[in-house]
Amino acid sequence: MIEYLPRSKQHIGLHLNQFGNEECLPGHFFGPAVRSHYLLHYVVDGEGFFEVDGTRYELRRGQGFLICPDIITYYQAGTANPWSYCWFGFEGTSAETLLKQAGISKSSPIFCYDQDNRIEQYLQMMIESGGLGKARETKLTGLLYLLLSLLIESSPVTSPEYEYTESRTEIYVEKVTNFIEMNYPYKFTVEDIARFIGLNRSYLCSLFKQSMHLSIQEYLIRHRINKACEMMGNTGLSIADISRSVGYNDPLLFSKMFKKVKGSSPKHYRAEIK
């Protein structure tokens, strides 16, 4: 069976285009041909082979292969023990990044998942979602994320963030700044950041200050105050509203921090930018 899906207008990061399964006849083949989106094939039983860029990969149960957009590929079921497989077609701005996290790419198109039958379960859940209405697209997208999460977690490849040219210090500093960007409106401590990243607080603070030439707490204060400045032009927000929106429930403390960073009170700063 195969089901084709319309292109998503809301899930631009990742979207399922089609899915299906097939019990192939001996020697059944497809290609050489190209596809316009990503296709993951997963072998449920039997054997076959996949060819891309002049390389042939022999595959069996528990293995799979990736077809990348606009790449010529060919695949064929075995003659003695033809394969049965399921497939998932998808696209989106996050697709390539997620696949790389699983160690799957144009240059490394083969993957293995033989721990359990969850991939087949997700396919069945996709099929059974046909009875849903407006929620179906979101459920299908969620199931696709779950499928890719299995491949990422089971991949022997080290997380791509450690394959980049950045030093380990730069990676941890980026984690800190990302955490602050996502959570600056809320109450948290430097200890919370260290626990989230998985490093000793003192060690993380030392790395951050060495790289950024200011402490994590100083960076957080500056980030919150800069965000407050961006809100100052919105006359619908009072100073107290802005204070709460950037993580300061105490307007007096907010005013003190604001003046420390910008050299003037929030009220005076707002008057000057009008």
Automatic annotation (TrEMBL):
Gene3D superfamilies: Homeodomain-like, Regulatory protein AraC. Coiled coil: none annotated. Residues 174-272 form the HTH araC/xylS-type domain. InterPro entries: AraC-bd, Homeodomain-like_sf, HTH-like, HTH_AraC, HTH_AraC-typ_CS, Tscrpt_reg_AraC-type_HTH. Pfam families: AraC_binding, HTH_18. SMART domains: HTH_ARAC. Keywords: DNA-binding, Transcription, Transcription regulation. SUPFAM superfamilies: Homeodomain-like, Regulatory protein AraC. It comes from the Bacteria. Transmembrane segments: none annotated. This is AraC family transcriptional regulator. It comes from Paenibacillus tritici.
